[in-house]
Each structure stands twice: as structure tokens, then as C-alpha cells.
Q: What sequence folds into this?
């Protein structure tokens, strides 16, 4: 287990204080405080447009913050962004290598841009091709690759110069589940060999794999911590209720002030109930017997999705609700 | 089925079709108004081009700057000069001591023509012979045509006994293009136009395409510098440009019999300077344009004055002063002067220093401006 306790201030891989970015009147990132330890995988979880990409661009120095401070690997960003470049690997949301170059040509181009020593480059590229299973496709144009192959190529290119910090903006959004699993194996390998990884996602299963996590919405950090800790400290209890007419039940339960949220999952309804209710099943059976008659009720462990639902939307801790 | 229903269905289908067309039309218009630069172009292109060319294009050459060599030093010779000035076709701006000096000035491109008044001017006037000679740079046929029209201008000193029976007042010596073929003038000029078009378009599109495809976001997070991106984008197209020049001048020589009178090394150097300036112009466009379409429009916006104002189609001397200033700002104007001088009149770059320095200066300042406008940032 990675120790998430506070190291000394200068030991954070990424530290932002009050990081804010406005585009005109629109606040894309609002007062974001982050502390990301070295050699961990840290995730940004949130819906599209929640400020994940903007935050990443602020951290890489591609955007200048409107307010707040950003320190990455001990450097002030954006002032020292040029120094950071050699120690940073960045994978954009959209595939950004050259479609009209082959796999090999793309890697060679990136090696030259990073001034990697030409003697070892051939070896390095070969080992990257093998590691990312691109050896058979090395003479293919990048534009002709599948989504999964493309992501592997982008990761191979981003890690060619062995960066200390890897920033991945929704790397798996165009990748099938099997390739996604493989991709995450690669990330853990990189992390084990000492790379700090910042990754954004809107998949719960991916977020759950991260060492640390920030749940974001409308540019605001709603919660952060290790996934297990977030689930433990949910601040609500979860029950699953089955039976007929779940649509109607969902509507009825949704009107109760003690119920945080309801979601239908196949043949049962997943219900989040405020923490103040000690035993949700007994409470439901005694206070609202007409709703749960002839239905089975199970108390279950909270999932990350429950955490996400609990701290975003109209349930957000600051009560602002979803800003669209 | 009865006819009215059929007709009603047809009308209905027609109405739906119109509605769909309308939807697309309004969507297009809405997108157009949101694409500010394109919208601006719609208004500015016709407006500026019309004002520019309506005033500037003038195929009637007026007040063409010319020189004079007066070997007779007589009152009558001065009367001839003032008579010629009164036609408003020419304006005597230079005076040379010998015909040799005059020829040099024409080769260097300082003037397009020189009037040589011989020592026996008075005698010729008596003998009803042509009284003087025009030395004319024939490479620009519009200029030489204007001067040829002066050939039969009547001139009387007031001392003659009878009215003049002289056929031609002047003898004419047409240099460089005695047959007055347009191709001689057009082909070297075409080098400037084709290079302006392709060089500006290639470089402007090259950078904008990377931005559109998302390559740039990755590239700017690497250690590569702005100036390195700029230079890396320019260099390959220098070779493209040299190939194009070889094609135009080579075929011009083979098919249209355009002579290459100057030295080849001088020509290559001049072309090199112009290609660099054009590519720089393309880079500047690429730092302004956000999409490939905008880059294309800006290219055309620069191309049209390069065709019309640079002296390619119409004589530079015929344009009003304001249009000449605009023309001076375009690399094509300087290059057209250089390429015609080198190819047709055998001039050297030494003769053409102001134009050469202008192109070099434009390139250096342009690359600096483009690199500083191009931020390795997204905001």
C-alpha cells in the first residue's frame, strides 16, 4: 500500500494551490488544491467539461492560470515550463501523432525531438515496439491503426524519453475493455519503475485503480483521497431493493428527504440513504412499509459510483448543484 | 387516386424539401457569422480589392520616369524636352552625360528609357531627318508601347521655312526585347506569382494543419523551440520553390524562347531571397489563421495584389503613389524587379541591392515576428 501521508512540502510531484482558470466569464477550473505524491497513479474523475483537461493543461504549462500557483517536480509553472518539458510525457485526449507517418517514423521523430542519443535510439524504439505490441505494425501508417493500437503508440511515444511525470488525458476513451485492461497493466509497470502518472477518466473501474483520486465537477474538486477511503467515508448508506415496478418505486423514494439518490441497476434499485439513518432496512420497513412490502432489501458496500453520485450534481457538499 | 390529393402530396413534399434546405441555409449563415475572420473576409475582400485596383490599375502609362542625354546643349533641344514633358507621357527625372551611362542606368532598372539628343541636332532638324533617339527598355511591352506612340510627335523649332515633312521625329532603339513579345516580360514575372501562391499557401497550411489535427498540442509540450518549428517548416519548401523556378524558366526558355541573359548564380541567389521572404509571409499567415480555410483566404488576399500591383500585369510606374507604397510592401514587387533585371537585362545583384536587402530584411524580421507571435501555449 502506498503511503499517502504528508511528506515534506517540496516532495510533492504536483502541488497546486488555488489554481484557477477563467475563459471570459466561464470558470473552467475553480480554486483547485492538489497534492500528488511521487510514484503514484493519481486520477481525475469527472464528467466531460468538468475541467479535467484544463487542469492538465495548466499543470503542463500549456495554459497560464488566472490565479493560484502550480509547482510540478519542484518547478514553478508556467515560468519554468520549458525546463519541465524534458521530464514530462503528455498524451493528449485526441490522438496527436502524425496519421501520415508510420509507427516507426512517429517514434523516430519523437526521439529526435527529445534529442535522444542516436546510438541507443534504434534499440530503444525496438524495445518500445515490443513492450507495446506494435512490432508487427511498425511499418503501418498511424492513421490505419485501431483505437487500442493508437493508444499504445501514443503511450510508447510519450514514454520514449523516460519521463518522471506522465500526464494522460482520457487515454482510454476510444479503447475497448480488454485493451483498457492491458493499458492499465502498462501504467502500473511504469509506476513501479518510478513514474508519477496523472490520468483523467470518466470510467469508475479505472478510477478505482488509482492510488489517489480527485472527483471533479464544474471546475471544482468535490472530493479527494484514496478510492477505498472515499468509499469508506461515503457519508451515506447503500441498500439494494428488488421487486416489481421499480420505476414507480424510484419516483416515490426519490421524494423522501432522507434518500440521497436512487438508480435502477437491472432488476434492483440502488438507493443511497443519509448516514443519519443507522439501519436503512429497519427504517424503510417501519417508516415506509407500503413502499417496501414484498420486496427484498440488502445493505451493500458502497462503490465508487456511489461516492461519485453522492458528491456531485444536486448532492454536492456545497449545495450549489450542477452548473451547466 | 384522384388528382387533387396527388397534387397536394406533391406540394407537401416540396414544402418539406424547402424546409430542409432552409434549415441548412440558416445553419450555414449562422456558422459563417460565428467564424469572424471568414465573415470579415466576405466584406473586406471585395471592398479593399475594389478600392485598390479601381484606383491603382491604369494601363495608360503617365509620367513615366525617363532620362535625357543632351549632347547638343541648345535652346531648341530644351524646347524638345519641355514639349515631351507636356505630353505627360514621360517625366524627365535623370540627366546623363554619355549614352553609355544611359544604357547602364537602363540595365540597372533606374529608368525605362533615355532620350539621346545628338550633337548635330540642329542640322538634323534642317534636314528633315529624325532629330533624336529613344533608348528604351523593351522588356515591359506596355511601357515601350507608350513610348513608341511618341515616335511621330510633331516638333517645330519655329525657324523652318516650310512645314515639317519629316516622317518620324525620333529614332527608336528597343533594348532586350526588340520584337516586343509579351512572353519575354510575362515569364520571369510568372516566377514571382507562382512562388507567391505556392510558398505562402504551403507554409501557412502546414502549421495550421498541425493545429487542426491536434499535432501541435503534443509538439508544444516537447523541448522543441518556436523558432525551431518555424525554421523546420520553411526549409523543405525552399527546395520546392527552386524546383518550380527551374520549371518556369526552363520551359520559358525552351518554349517561349525567353533569354537568360544574367548569371545563373545571381539568379539562384535572388530566387532564394524571394522564396525565404514568401515562406516567411506564409508563416505570418499561419500565426493569424486558425483553420486551413482561413489560411487559404488570407493567401488569396495577398496573392491578388501581388498579381495586380507588383508590376507583373501593369507597369508599376503607371500606378498612383499610394498604390506604389502598397506594392513596395509586397515581396513580389521587389522580386519582379530583380528577376526581370537579371534574366532579361543581365543585371547583377550589385545593381539590385535595395531590392535584395529589402527581401532579406523582410525574412529576418518576419521569422522573428512569427516566432514571437507563435506561443508554445494554448491560451
A:
Amino acid at each position: 500500500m502506498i503511503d499517502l501521508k504528508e511528506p515534506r512540502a517540496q516532495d510533492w510531484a504536483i502541488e497546486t494551490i488555488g489554481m484557477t482558470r477563467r475563459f471570459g466569464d466561464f470558470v473552467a477550473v475553480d480554486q483547485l488544491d492538489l497534492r500528488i505524491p511521487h510514484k503514484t497513479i493519481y486520477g481525475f474523475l469527472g464528467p466531460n467539461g468538468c475541467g479535467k483537461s484544463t487542469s492538465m493543461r495548466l499543470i503542463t504549462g500549456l495554459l497560464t492560470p488566472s490565479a493560484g500557483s502550480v509547482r510540478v517536480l519542484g518547478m514553478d509553472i508556467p515560468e519554468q515550463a520549458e525546463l519541465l518539458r524534458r521530464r514530462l510525457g503528455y498524451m493528449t485526449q485526441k490522438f496527436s501523432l502524425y496519421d501520415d507517418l508510420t509507427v516507426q517514423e512517429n517514434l523516430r521523430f519523437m526521439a529526435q525531438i527529445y534529442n535522444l542519443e542516436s546510438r541507443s535510439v534504434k534499440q530503444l524504439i525496438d524495445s518500445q515496439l515490443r513492450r507495446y505490441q506494435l512490432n508487427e505494425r511498425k511499418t503501418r501508417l498511424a492513421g490505419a491503426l485501431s483505437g487500442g493500437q493508437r493508444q499504445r503508440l501514443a503511450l510508447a511515444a510519450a514514454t520514449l524519453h523516460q519521463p518522471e511525470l506522465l500526464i494522460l488525458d482520457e487515454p482510454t476513451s476510444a479503447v475497448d475493455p480488454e485493451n483498457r485492461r492491458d493499458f492499465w497493466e502498462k501504467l502500473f509497470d511504469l509506476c513501479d519503475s518510478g513514474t508519477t502518472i496523472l490520468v483523467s477518466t470518466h470510467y469508475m473501474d479505472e478510477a478505482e485503480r488509482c492510488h489517489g483520486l480527485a472527483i471533479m465537477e464544474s471546475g471544482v474538486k468535490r472530493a479527494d483521497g484514496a478510492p477505498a477511503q472515499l468509499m469508506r467515508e461515503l457519508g451515506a448508506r447503500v441498500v439494494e431493493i428488488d421487486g416489481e415496478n421499480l420505476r414507480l418505486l424510484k419516483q416515490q423514494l426519490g421524494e423522501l428527504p432522507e434518500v440521497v439518490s436512487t438508480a435502477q441497476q437491472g432488476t434492483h434499485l440502488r438507493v443511497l440513504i443519509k448516514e443519519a439513518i443507522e439501519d436503512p432496512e429497519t427504517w424503510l420497513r417501519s417508516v415506509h412499509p407500503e413502499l417496501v412490502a414484498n420486496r427484498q432489501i440488502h445493505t451493500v458496500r458502497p462503490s465508487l459510483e456511489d461516492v461519485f453520485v453522492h458528491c456531485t450534481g444536486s448532492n454536492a457538499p456545497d449545495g450549489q448543484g450542477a452548473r451547466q | 387516386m384522384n388528382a387533387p390529393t396527388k397534387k397536394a402530396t406533391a406540394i407537401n413534399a416540396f414544402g418539406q424539401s424547402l424546409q430542409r434546405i432552409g434549415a441548412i441555409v440558416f445553419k450555414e449563415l449562422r456558422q459563417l457569422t460565428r467564424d469572424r475572420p471568414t465573415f470579415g473576409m466576405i466584406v473586406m475582400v471585395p471592398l479593399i480589392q475594389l478600392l485598390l485596383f479601381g484606383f491603382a490599375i491604369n494601363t495608360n502609362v503617365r509620367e513615366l520616369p525617363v532620362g535625357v542625354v543632351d549632347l547638343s546643349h541648345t535652346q531648341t533641344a530644351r524646347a524638345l524636352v519641355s514639349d515631351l514633358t507636356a505630353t505627360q507621357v514621360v517625366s524627365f527625372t535623370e540627366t546623363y552625360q554619355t549614352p553609355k551611362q544611359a544604357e547602364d542606368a537602363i540595365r540597372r532598372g533606374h529608368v525605362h528609357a533615355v532620350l539621346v539628343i545628338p550633337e548635330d541636332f540642329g542640322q538634323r532638324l534642317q534636314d528633315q531627318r529624325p532629330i533624336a533617339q529613344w533608348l528604351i527598355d523593351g522588356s515591359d511591352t506596355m511601357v515601350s508601347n507608350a513610348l513608341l506612340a511618341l515616335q511621330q510627335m510633331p516638333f517645330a523649332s519655329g525657324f523652318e521655312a516650310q512645314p515639317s515633312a519629316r516622317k518620324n521625329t525620333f529614332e527608336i532603339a528597343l533594348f532586350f526585347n526588340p520584337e516586343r513579345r509579351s512572353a519575354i516580360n510575362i515569364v520571369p514575372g510568372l516566377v514571382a506569382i507562382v512562388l507567391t501562391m505556392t510558398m505562402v499557401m504551403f507554409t501557412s497550411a502546414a502549421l495550421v494543419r498541425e493545429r487542426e489535427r491536434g499535432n501541435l498540442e503534443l509538439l508544444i509540450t516537447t523541448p522543441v523551440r518556436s523558432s525551431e518549428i518555424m525554421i523546420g517548416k520553411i526549409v523543405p519548401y525552399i527546395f520546392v520553390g527552386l524546383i518550380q523556378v527551374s520549371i518556369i524558366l526552363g520551359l520559358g526558355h525552351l518554349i517561349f524562347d525567353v533569354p537568360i541573359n544574367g548569371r545563373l548564380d545571381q539568379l539562384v541567389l535572388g530566387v532564394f531571397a524571394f522564396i525565404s521572404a514568401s515562406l516567411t509571409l506564409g508563416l505570418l499567415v499561419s500565426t493569424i489563421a486558425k483553420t486551413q480555410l482561413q489560411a487559404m483566404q488570407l493567401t488569396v488576399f495577398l496573392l491578388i495584389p501581388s498579381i495586380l500591383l507588383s508590376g507583373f500585369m501593369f507597369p508599376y510606374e503607371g500606378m498612383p503613389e499610394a498604390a506604389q507604397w502598397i506594392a513596395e510592401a509586397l515581396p513580389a514587387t521587389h522580386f519582379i524587379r530583380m528577376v526581370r533585371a537579371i534574366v532579361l537585362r543581365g543585371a547583377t545583384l550589385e545593381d539590385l541591392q535595395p531590392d535584395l536587402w529589402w527581401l532579406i530584411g523582410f525574412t529576418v524580421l518576419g521569422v522573428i515576428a512569427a516566432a514571437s507571435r507563435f506561443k508554445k501555449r494554448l491560451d
Remarks:
- The two ends of chain B are 65 Å apart (CA to CA).
